[in-house]
Write a structure and sequence with these properties.
The complex is a heterodimer of chains A (263) and B (333). Chain A has 263 residues and is an alpha/beta fold. Chain A has ten helices and ten strands. Chain B is globular, with a radius of gyration of 21 Å. The two termini of chain B are 20 Å apart. The chains are: A alpha/beta (263), B mainly alpha (333). The complex binds adenosine-5'-triphosphate (ATP) and magnesium ion. Magnesium ion binds next to helix 1 of chain A.
């Protein structure tokens, strides 16, 4: 049984079918790439799975259990954590505080524990603090942990978004264009870190990315969307040769989004 | 060396706390004791308003929740003869419970609608107290509310004893606010205000967290109401009006909602300004709303972080120039 299964998933925005009877299966432990031209419905898929949008029709199941109709936080508490394509941080808080919010589902500190601030709570808080430092170190931000997020360079901001999501210890991590605006070396380092962490923890990952090098190099399997429909699915090698995919992308004029070794 | 001698915020607090405890021994002035009692109640209410604001919501019904506590405790004491100290806590619970029910209904809606809903709620409560006169005494209110029951032979009823109860309530509310501020509870509250969708995506139950803040705030508002009833020996619907709720908002904004100390600063300044003005001969209090309005406009225009925000900015500017001076000296040497 796949970890997550979307069946006949559709959503309309007015007259626009952003997702059109989409079937996607995500297997436990894999890194699944989700690609497609601008406006294909990739972000919408994450938005629907995470409960941000309600689908017009179709089913989504996690381990066979329906999750359509749940609130965002309920879906998050089932282990599905997503990042946002744009503005994905608490900009006026420090790096550490951002990561600390990511611990919300894991903290184990209850209301009265927080109020009383007893020794048990203090120990738990200490552990979380160390874990937060550890996570910020993973992304080479240890020295920036008390910096206000808005002051971080762009690359670190993208990384922090993912760091927060990882702090929530997801079963299924959905990343919406995490490396946008990063230079090639940054991208490589960042993607390697993500892959190392998710593979080590067995986190299933859905990766939306326009950077073809990142997608092809890091995903186990790829699903291609166009106009809300799935037009191809398979290993990176297969996708690169797929005529429909090439056509879909060439229909788009932006060169940067061409599949292939460039970009 | 210099650093060790510098005043830390905690030391300032300690000094203020000790002064508050010693004040009745230093001065027998009943007028000031009563003013500080009122001030303590106002700070408790405004701190609650700020706590709710921390989750991005504006509640313009805090006076009504104070009233819920006041009526609850008064009716239980006078009709059922319950111990006033138990009723003191029950007043808090009643207000918190009311807030919980109201919150689950109204906190689903967007921020501005919640503010409007609470505004309407304050009026609704007033109407209930006015119209249901068999229970709440109507516009005339309830008179002859007794002083709190004695504990271990200690009698409460003097101005000084009310002062100490109010200061105790202020200390406990402040301690609670500080713990919230410095723990994960406050972290999660402010994450909601900063970016609710992101917080929800990390598993934060937005409605429940907002309701939680609302309930804690109203718990203390209810207790303050019970104290107020004993203090005045008389309550009526005009004690808990929309205008009073707006005043708590005003105190909070003027003191600064960012800081946990904002409400205390805002209330102190705004309650002592009239006290000071009344020392002026031939002073007519009718112009007070104009003065308050003027101060509000000035604060909102020139220091959106309130008076505490202004103070913090001045301190950080001072530190900057100091460290620059230090660097220059260093470079010169
Ligand atoms: N909330 C919304 N209301 C109306 N239309 C929307 C909404 N969200 C998305 N859309 C539309 O749905 C379509 C799919 O959008 P989506 O953001 O999923 O594309 P995408 O594949 O993520 O594109 P990109 O690569 O540019 O991020 C687009 O035509 C978009 O305009
Ligand atoms: Mg997108």
């Amino acid at each position: 049984m796949p970890l997550l299964e979307a069946e006949h998933l559709s959503i309309r925005f007015g007259g626009l079918k952003a997702l059109d009877k989409l079937d996607i299966q995500i297997e436990e432990g894999e890194i699944l790439g989700l690609i497609g031209p601008n406006g294909a419905g990739k972000s919408t898929f994450i938005n629907v799975v995470s409960g941000f949008h309600k689908p017009s029709s179709g089913r989504i199941t996690l381990n066979g259990e329906n999750i359509v109709g749940l609130r965002m936080d309920q879906i998050a508490s089932k282990g599905i954590i997503r990042t946002f394509q744009v503005s994905n941080l608490f900009m006026s808080s420090s790096v550490l505080r951002n990561i600390q919010v990511g611990f919300h589902l894991q903290s184990g500190i209850g209301f009265w524990g927080s109020i009383l601030g007893n020794s048990k709570t203090r120990r738990q808080e200490q552990v979380l603090h160390e874990k937060a430092l550890e996570i910020s170190n993973l992304f080479n931000m240890g020295h920036l942990s008390n910096e206000m997020t808005a002051n971080l360079p762009h690359g670190h901001q993208r990384e922090l978004g993912v760091a927060m999501a990882l702090a929530a210890e997801p079963k299924l991590l959905m990343l919406d264009e995490p490396v946008t605006g990063m230079i090639a070396e940054e991208t490589l380092r960042f993607m390697n870190t993500i892959r190392a962490i998710t593979k080590k923890k067995g986190t299933t990952t859905l990766l939306i990315e326009h950077d073809m090098k990142a997608v092809m190099g890091f995903c186990d399997r790829i699903v291609v969307l166009n106009f809300g429909k799935k037009i191809a699915e398979g290993t990176p090698e297969k996708i690169q040769k797929n005529q429909d995919v090439i056509k879909a992308y060439l229909g788009e004029k932006k060169d940067a989004q061409n599949p292939g070794p460039a970009s | 060396m210099l650093k060790n001698r510098r005043l830390t915020p905690n030391m300032v607090l300690l000094v203020i706390a000790i002064l508050l405890i010693l004040f009745p021994m230093l001065s027998g002035n009943k007028y000031y004791l009563r003013t500080i009692t009122t001030l303590a109640i106002a700070i408790v209410l405004t701190s609650g308003f700020r706590l709710i604001a921390l989750t991005g919501q504006l509640s313009i019904a805090q006076a009504a929740f104070m009233g819920v506590g006041a009526y609850c405790s008064t009716l239980l004491i006078m009709n059922l003869g319950w111990n006033s100290w138990i009723c003191f806590f029950l007043a808090g619970f009643a207000a918190a419970l009311t807030a919980g029910i109201v919150g689950f209904i109204t906190l689903r809606i967007k921020e501005i609608y919640f503010a409007i809903a609470t505004l309407a709620l304050n009026e609704l409560f007033r109407l209930i107290w006015v119209e249901w006169d068999t229970l709440f005494g109507g516009p005339a209110g309830i008179v002859n509310i007794p002083s709190p029951d004695p504990i271990l032979g200690i009698h409460f009823g003097s101005v000084v004893s009310f002062y100490y109860i109010a200061v105790l309530l202020l200390f406990s509310a402040t301690a609670m606010m500080l713990r919230i501020e410095r723990s994960r509870i406050g972290l999660i509250f402010s994450s909601i205000r900063e970016f609710d969708t992101l917080a929800a995506s990390l598993g934060v139950n937005l409605i429940w967290e907002k309701v939680k803040a609302f309930m804690i705030a109203c718990f203390f508002a209810g207790m303050a109401g019970a104290l107020y009833a004993h203090l005045q020996h008389f309550i009526s619907p005009v004690d808990f009006t929309l205008m009073d709720s707006v005043m708590f908002l005003l105190y909070g904004v003027i003191g600064g909602l960012e800081s946990v100390w904002g409400p205390a600063v805002g209330c102190t300044v705004m309650i002592f300004i009239p006290v000071g003005l009344r020392l002026i001969p031939n002073y007519n209090p009718v112009i007070e709303p104009i003065i308050f309005g003027g101060i509000l406009i000035l604060v909102m225009r020139f220091c959106p972080g309130g008076l505490v925000g202004l103070f913090q900015k001045l301190v950080s500017d001072l530190k900057k120039t100091e460290s620059q001076k230090g660097e220059q000296e260093h470079a010169a040497a």
